[in-house]
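Subject: sequence -> structure tokens, single chain

Hey, anyone have a minute? Need the predicted structure for the following. Not urgent.
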Amino acid sequence: MKTSLPTPSAVHLQMNLFQFSIQKCGVIIGDTTSLPVVTLIQTNLFTEHSSSLHWSQNPPSEWFITNKFDVTPYLGRINFVSILPSGFLLAGLALGIFHLIRFLKAKPDPTITGNALIALIIIASMAGYFWFLVRYPALDKGDTIKATYMIHIFPLLAILAGQVLQKINHISPRLSRLTIILLFSIFIHNLPAMVTRFIPWHLLAYYPPFRWITAYLPWQ
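Reply:
Had a minute. Here:
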């Protein structure tokens, strides 16, 4: 990297000065032609942005065989139902920030100390990633906005989200059980996208005895 670019830590994009004005509002905030950062990270985390949200006006070539148009509605539903687990991750982050503030104000217990450390790691990672987005903008495609660059924070967010669910259980065990059922149902619904881009139940359509089943499935 040092031989072709100014710094060995550079990426394949041109580095710019740290100025918010170099980024289009559509990349940071969102408008009618582009997507906000949070939306792109959501789609990259649970599915794939290029498959679930990108459509081409030109029909594919005859030689090009793809299940894109079959699987895209399913990927869209994955993004919709995954709003709930994403909400828990954000609630976990809020809990971590709250415990970080308590840690700075008073002598906390070990749980608050641990959560404060987790929140500090997440915040530092997000700040560094935000710096990366501004210094290496991809204004045409937003290629630098990927959940992969922040994948290390999601296990930490899951720890905090689990504590949020535990607090819900203390307040209302019935609501907690309902939430667990919903989250498990979302996991089952999203499972095919975690292991393959093909929808397993579409294979039933190739077997006449089971073809009628696929006609009544709610997730075609």
